[in-house]
Structure formats: C-alpha cells, structure tokens
Fold each of these.
Amino acid sequence: MLKTQELTLNMGPVHPSTHGVYRCVLTLDGEYVRNAVNHIGYLHRGLEKLAESRTYSQFIPYTDRLDYCSGLANELAYVMAVEKLMGITEEIPERAQYLRVICAELQRLASHGIFVGSFALDTAGMTAFFYAFRERDRVLELITRIGGNRLTPNYMRIGGVARDLEEDFFKELKQLMDDYDAAIDEYDGILTGNEIFQSRTKGVSIVSKEMALDYGFTGPNLRASGVDYDMRRDEPYGIYDRFKFEVPIGETGDTFDRYVLRVKEMRESVKIIKQALEQIPEGPVMAKVPKVIKPPVGEVFHCIENPKGHLGFHIVSDGSTKPYRTRIYSPTFVMLSAFPEMAKGTHIMDAVLILASIDIVLGEVDR
Amino acid sequence: MFGQGLIKGLSITLKHLFDKKLTEEYPEVKPNLPDSFKGSFMLKVPKCIACGLCANACPNNVIKIESEKDENNKKKLTGYKMMAERCLYCGFCVEACPTKALLWTKEFENAVYIREMVNLDLFSSYVPSPDDEKPAKPKKQDEETAQAS
C-alpha cells in the first residue's frame, strides 16, 4: 500500500520569481497545490508614516518607490490628489497636462514591457524576454531624459511638471512610437502565437467576472476577466477625455487573457502618445502655486488608472505644511490576496505563472 | 496547423540573428548620458551664498551646511557635507539652489568599498576654476522664495 503525505514548501523569499521580497507557503499533494498562504512585508518601508514627516512636495520622490516599475504614474496619482485637495485641478497648464499624459503612457509601456518579459521568462521563453526588454530600455532612456533617473524620475510637481522637455526628446519619442507597433507584432509572433506558450497558459487559473469583482480587482486583471471598465475612459481624469482609444476586454480571464490584454493595451498606449504628440500646445508647464504648500483642512481621495490597476491616495490635511495622514490604496496588494484561491488545485509549475500574471510589484504591496 | 506559431517565432529570431548588436559594451564604452542625468553632485563654492535652501528642500536631511559671518555680516560657507548614503537622488536641492552653485554631474560609478566613503564633502573636494569666481546675484524670484520660507 503506497502511503502519501502532503508536503509544505516555501516558495520564496529566495525564489527567482519572487526575488527576496515575497514568500508563499505552498501545501503540495504530489505536484498539485492544495493550499497557499501569502507572507508579505519583506519590503515594508513605512512610506505612509514617512509621508507624515515630509512636506507635501517632499513626498513626491517617495511615491516613485511604490511601484518601482511605473514611477511617473505613481507621482501623477499623488500629485493629482494634492491638487484636488488644494482645489487647483483646473489651473494646470495645457502643456503640462499633455506632458503628464505622455509620461504616464510611456510608463505604462515600460511596465507592461516588464510584464511581457518576465512572463515569458516564467514560461522559460528567454528570447521574448530580451525582445521585451529591448523596447523597455528605449523607453527608460527617454525617462532618463525626462527626469534624470531610469526608475525614479521625480518629474511631476504639484501644479505641473518640473521642466519643459527639449525638441530632441519629442523627436526621439516620435521615432520610438513609430517603431513600437512593429515591436509589439514581434511579441505577438514569438509569444502569443506560440503553441507551447498557449498550452502552458490557456485555461490556467480562470478568474470569473464575479470573483474578480468580489476580490476588488482593478486595471488589466479586471478587464481580462471581462469587466469593461477603464478609468481613463469611464471617469476621465486630467485630459484623458480628449483621446480616442479602445479598451481591450478579455474573454475567459485565464492567464493567457491577462497576458494578451496587456499586449493589446500597449498598442493603445502608443495610440494615445501619438495623439498627444500631435495635439501638444506650447506654453508654460507650471501653474502659479505657492512655494510652501498648505492645503485647506479636509481630506481627499483620488485614484488613477496605473499600469497595474487603480492607485489611490487618501490624504488628510490639518492645514499645516505636512499631511496629517496619507493612505495608499495599492492595486497589487488587493490582487495578491486572491493568489491563494487562484493557485489552489493547479500544478506547481503553474503557480509561478499565475503569480506572474497578476503582475505584482512588492514595493507597492508592502509600501 | 500545429506548429505554425513556432515557425513564425523562429523566423523572427532568425531575422534578428543578422541584425546590428544592441548590447552596450559598458566598461569599455561609456554610455551616452543626457544632460538631465542625475549622477553625483558638484558645488561651485564661490557661488554658494550659504542660504540653506537646499538643506530645507531635502526630504531626508542629507545636506549639512556650516557657515560663519564675516566682518560685513555676510554669510560665508565653511563646510558642505552630503550624507549621500541617505540621498534619494530626487534633485530638489539642485532645483532649489538660487545661484546655481549646486549642480549634477554625469559621474555615475558611485560604488565604494567602505560605507563612509559614500558621503560627499563638497566643500573640501572643490577644485577652483576661473569661471566660478564671480558670485552670481540671486534673482528676484528667489528672494520671494526666501521670504516665503
């Protein structure tokens, strides 16, 4: 009589796909996952508490460190929240608005580039990883021109952006956008159409519409489950109502859909940047804001469509130069909590894939 | 037909086999960095008026300024230390400088063997150059800043 027993296995913190910041305790029955328990907090830096001892503008560089794959978009979320609190949302100059959209969409391309690359790597597709990172590196070079750093640019300011960008930058951006469609076709050719890749990802960890809504999924993962909701289109912030773009929707909500949807979103981001480049006016990039920012007493919540979902900031002001309380609503924290249910019953090799398909960044989960 | 996607993928990689190589030959060939690049810091000491705006703007208390008043009751810089181990490289200090004395350099190989060596002493490491001798006068806009803070 063969005797079997369940095996407890630590996935992480030193696992190639969790690289030291996340641990998941898997209970295995043979090669099947029976139970999974999340352990987070390895990258906790107490950013919410740090915000209380920094002035409003001094906290902007810290938001870069939330989701370090999309620094500019995090800054935008924070800066827009403070502007809403101060009531100066209408005063942001036109050119700054367009620059913000360009920055946010560039960052979306970089973030989804990481997703495509690392997702390919988790299915052991080394070539696609390099192809995805090739374009991402060109985007990061442009971000270096914007803010001086690759991942933590610190470019957004309360009331506009830090500085105007030179003509050279726009020329290079235009060139990149012209090349991007061909690059995305390559991802499609090498990954999406690949039969081995499809058989690894199709039908794995299906998240239904109801489950996605129950867990509070946002962003690409929500849309992959078939819910047609994109903040950029449905509750436009900034000047997003001026651009024409489609919101791709997934059908089944499996890992393959979550991947395909992000590739489709990259195409839409390219469209938005192209439109923004055509429409961008000349003018100032900074509104008239006092040097010392003292918002009125009150509180505000503002969230935007980040590459990974809705990133929100809840700021409570007591009328002084520092916020009384800052709360960060991070999308991947919410979505990571669904991982145990998504991984239950799957093969152990798929568990890594499911984790990658959520597109977690632990900087944001732990804050 | 099964395998069509595989063949398509292979044809893409085959095409790239004969492409120009993209790899940067880093230690031999230095990267071409943009002007906005945030590498290390440089202080033009004669231009500095020891106003302390950079230290105020810093989110992390990185900058330590020492100054003394001379016979005309004017502030004179006697020390400028940067605890770069705590630095976020956000650039608020460079932005705040009214006389453009504090600048970014493109030097990015900042790794050292001993932790204390990360910190910068910009006052004593200053190398005089003839362009820096005339202290630029702060503009009007910056006087407003000083009043506001």
Note: The helical segments of chain B are 4-17, 53-57, 92-96, 140-148.
Amino acid sequence: MDTLAKLEILADAAKYDAACTSSGAERGPKKGMVGVASNAGCCHSFTADGRCVTLLKVLLSNACTHDCAYCVNRASNHVPRATFEPAELAQLTIDFYKRNYIEGLFLSSGVLGSPDATSERMIACLELLRGPYRFSGYVHAKVIPGTDPELVDRLGRLADRLSVNVELPSAESLEKLCPEKHAEDVIAPMAQIQASMRSGRLLGAGAMSHGTTSGAGNGYSTVKPEARVAALPATGLARRGNSKRGAPRSEAFCPAGQSTQLIIGATPESDRDILSLSTGLYQRFGLKRVFFSAYMPIADDPRLPHPETPVPLRREHRLYQADWLMRFYGFEASELVADDAPFLDLDVDPKLAWALTVPERFPVEVNSASKEVLLRVPGFGPASVRKICRARRAHRLTFDDLDRLRISVKRAGFFITCSGEQSPRFVASPEAIREKVVSDAASSAYNRAQRENPRQLTLF
Amino acid sequence: MAVDPTAEGVLTATGLSYLERCSHAPLRFVRRDRAQPALGEAFFEVPTIEGLARRVYRGFAARFREGCPRARGGRCAPRCSSSCARRVYTIAASDDEAMPEALHAFLVLGFDHGRGVLSLAAQDARIAQAEAFHTLAVNESEKARQFVRFSELSTGAFFSLYAPKANVLPLVAGHFARRMEGERFLLADPLHHVAVLFSEGRLVVGPLTSEEVAKLSRPHELSSVERSVRALWKRFYDALALPGRGRHERGYDLRAHFMPKRIADGLIELDPGTDEGFEARAWEDAVAAGAHAAGTGALADAAAEREKGASGLPGSALKFLEERARG
C-alpha cells in the first residue's frame, strides 16, 4: 500500500477527533531545526464542512483491539486498515510544514495490542521527528487510556499538548459503550499530566521551550524519567538561582497543556451533566479545552441512536457557546442550565437565554457599566467591550458613536442604554425579545435548511 | 501633499510639515499616484526620506509610551513590543485612497493625545477610518499566514505568489522567516509588486518591477517530489470532511465564509487536478533519502550547507534582492 492510500485511510480514521488547535505554546526558531510554535496558533485550511485544518491529523494506525460501539475503528468494523512507518510520517510532516500547509502534527492511534505497545510506537515516531528530522513545530499527541505513567511522561516531553479523551459524559455510558475502557484509566493520566506540568512550573522547567539538553544532540532529553525526577529538585533550584529569568529551557512537559473530547448525542446525558463535567475537568485538571463532538451515526447498534438520526449540530454549537461563556465571560454552568431545564435552549444562544431569565439586571448603561457587566450583554463580545471602554474615556457615548465604532446593537439594543437613551429596538418584556430574536433567526440559512431537512429523532 | 502610499512616505511628509511649522489643519495628504488637486489647493510632491521617517516614527512611539501602564523604564513591555505605535505600519498597508489622510490624522492626533488617540475613533471619522484600515491589514496578515502555499523548486528553494487585499507581505515576512529557519524562500505579491526574500538567514523586502512580476508569474521547474506532496496534501484534505455537517445540512457554506473565493482559487487543495500528480516512486525515494539523511545526521549538514550556498531562487529577476540580501 502506498503512502497516498495509507494517508487517506488514516486521515479518514482520525477525522472524528474534534481537537485541531495549534495554540498555547510559544517557541522561537532554533538553528538547524525546522519550525516554531506560536501562542495564537494558525488555521491553514477549512474542510468542506467548515472545520479548520491546522495540523496533520492522522492515526499512526487504525488497527484496534478495542470494540467501542461508537467508533469507526472498532475491532468488529470491517474497514481497510493501515499503519504508517515512522519515517514516512516524519517526512510527510516536514514536507507539509515547509509548504505552509500545517503547523505541526496531531498523532493518535488505534490500540495496537496494548496501550503501552501503542504508546511506544508513537514515542518512537515522535523521537524520530524531533530528533534526526529536527522538527521543532507543534505536536499534539493522544494518550491512550491505560498507558504506563512512564510512557505518558515521555510523550509529554516530546509533544506540546497531550489529550486524553473522556469520550462520553458519564462513567456508566463509557462502561456501556466501551467495555475495555474505564473511567479511572482516563482520569489517571489527566492527573499525572497536570502534576507533571505543575512540578515543571514550580521548578522553573521551561514552560515555553523544548530544551537543548543532552543525548542525541537533538534538543530532546534522553534522560530516563526516574533519573529526571530524581534530578529535578536540585538542578531546577540550582538553575533558578543562577539564571536571570529563572527558567531553564529544558524538559518542558506539555507546554501547551492538555485537552479532552466528549461525544454529544450518543448517550442520554443532559447539557447540564455535560457542562458540570467540563467545569469539573477545567477546575480539577487545569484543562485548556474541552471539545464537543456531535455524534455521527456510523453503526446500527441498539445501544446507539438510530443510524438515520441527524447530527446534533445545533446542540454542539450551543455547548461550545456555553463553554466559551464559562471560560471567557465569567459565567457559571448553573447560570446557563438549571435543574428544571437541563438542556440549553436551541432557539436562542445561551447568553441571551440567560439574560431573558434575569430582566431585572437590564438595561445597563454603556457609559458607566463595568467591563464584566458589559461582557454579559447579549450581542457584545470582548472586542466590542474593549472598543466601548476605550472610547468612553474620551466622551459619553451615544448610539451614533457605537455605530461609528462599528459595534452592532441589533441584539444588544434590547439590553442597553446610551447616555440614558434607549435604543429604538428596545422592548421591555423578555417574551417579546425572545419572540423577536427567534423570528429574526427564522429566516437564517441554517433554520431554513433545518426546516427543509427531516426532523431530528429523539430517542432518549 | 502628494506622498508615497507607504508609512515612510506619510511619516516623511508629516515630519516636513512640522519642520516647516505648517499648521496641519489645512493640509491634505493624498497618494502620489492618484493625486488630484482641488481648486485653490497648492500641490507639493514629497519624496520619501528614510532618515526623517525613522526619526518621526521614533518620536511617535516615544509619545505613545508616555502613560502606558505596561511600559517599564521608558521601554515598551516585551509582550506588546510597541504594537500600538506599529499601527502606523498596519494602517499604511491599506490600498485605500484615503490612507495617507487617515494616517496623517492618526499621527497628528497621536502626537497631541498619545495613546489617547485610540479613544477618538467615535468622535473623529478619520481615526475611525484609520482603525478600519488597521483591522483590515491585521485580518489580511492573518490570511497570508494561513493561505500562502509554498512550492519547492528544483533548486531546493521555496517559492510562492500571493496577492493579498492590502500590502501586508512586509508585515508577515518575519513570521515566515521564523518558520523557515535554515531554508530559502521567495514570497512575491504580484498585486503590490513586493517581494520577500529569505536567504542565508537574512530577510529582505523589496519592490518588483512589472517585468519581474511577469517573470515570476511564469511556471517554474519544480522539485521531483513537489507534485507528489501536493497530491498527498489534497488527499489528506479531502479525507477530513465529515458527513452530515456540510453545506446542505447547515444551509450555508461555512468553508466559503472562512476561505473567500479570491483565496480559494489559489489553493492547491481545492484544485481537482492536484490529485493526479502523485508519483509513488519519487515519493518513496524522497522518504528513503530522508530516512538515510536523518540516520547519518546529514539533514543538519544539509541545512548548514544551504545557509552557506547559492540561493537557487527563481531567475535573474531577483538579482537585486539577492545582492541586497548579501549586504
């Protein structure tokens, strides 16, 4: 099988993983190495369905001994199987990177025999790429649940970001659909990754850069993990004492942090369960992102939704919006979903839905409201709030000023006043606002398409 | 005042008008190539003076730092590294006719108010326009970082033609130089007649003549593996699309939103012909050669060799750029 055929199989097998970010690590150019990493990341293309392509996202192999019901690569599924040679994958990564097709590599794999054996192969591949192939760009590696902690440590010192997929929103669902996986196998590596990152930071072990220590002369450590752990307190502190910046640029463990992914719509958990889980993961393991992947029916299995069930795109979108509100706008999960309404409103976005439940907080005066309050106004994002805060230092703002600043008040007009004046769009009652927003949205392309397509089946 | 439509052109004219003690209110800055004096207007053509432009910019940046909460010891914080003052260059990247006047207003009010000029967008239409030009250039820079596609030439150098909506290649040149450490590349903008050359570790940005643009626009001899890499990329790209989330299900084309047609037209992953270029033999040879070189440490030697060696960039059209690169 040639590389073209392998690439098609292994990219197709990896596409269900939602994570494709290259952000969170900053690493400048190095003599004799290819590539850098930048904090902001960069999308290099967009697929036909509109998702961004930033990394060469492939599986090392799609052969898998596990039989997870929702997975296209499960052992019982009859699909063509392929496995990359490490040199083949390294050459592909370098060639794509130099042509500005990608920012780096996203490496995952089916379980080849055992999690340890699979991880060893992934490590061999990354060592080749980081070492003799001299690649210093971004690498995201998947941790297979059940992998030995020593191997997780080695992976974390080769990759910028690690991720362990939670897969399903509850331990019961995981047990039901993935008999070989256990919740503790997912949680343990997450805790280990967080502890290693924390100890790296405490000891000043360069959070920003892969190092230049030793070994193969490739910038990546060949010191055994035990030796490294034993050496860390002394060397770390000694280096801190001698260094102006206090951060020896070596042995950075997973500088871009860790993330995870949940499948939405394959099991009966509510949005409230999902948001509570993601809040817990952010707080407990310091995750950078929780990705949500709308379930795409690929198997006729009684444990799963009917194969003709449409993909719950709108629900996935609302969950991402809610996740964003929790991370950047100061919202709590309990403000967005209540006990008596555990699912997010699919007709209006979560911020608007929240605002309609607390009419006593509105309207707010843009000239005097704090940044935090303005961020909670539906229709205002960080860019608009920044512009408002900057402009109101010079004079009191009017609706005309907002127009000049190119800030849309189509949505926000219901919730603000400018120098005491209300927008011409202002409507007092939450029901009327909701009705107006929903009727405005009814003509949107998405809603038209949904009306024309068959309705989503409800199985739970 | 008719100025070159560059940051240096406007900075020079602003400096000259200051040195001549002119009031800025009656002055109108226009692009030299589109200058059309109105009735009763006196017309001055201002040549760009690099030294004066640098001096004015330094003064402007220093004024911006005053009162900046992040500045330490009279210097900008490394985190933002004078990004406020560098708006001068992002505003100047715009092709709009009103750019010189908007930038002039930004400079004059910037000298008056320091960073406070950024708060005036709601009051002053010219500052609002300058902000709009800045936003456009920032967005176009990001698109250039995303969608420039290099091809490897038979000489081992990389080459790309990319036509952005604003003159942003000089703004993103450093980004590509950082990515391509140890390589050589030429990135040319046929619309703004600008080329970025990175060779022997040095980065040069220079103008191109129409003849040079025409020469660069012709097909070049590609490396033996280039068509195979393109085909692999296309196959990878096609394999990533997910069913059930496309245009039909969404009701709109999300890809077209992120990749407008003017960009999509130049992307090899959207060209149906790209798929046919795979030559298994050439690719396998490249993988074997790469593995061999990696095993013997020859990849590092090759990078060092390239840094020393001839550039291998396309054509004599770029002779002057290469000369400038060599200093």
Note: Chain A touches chain B through 78 residues (CB under 8 Å).
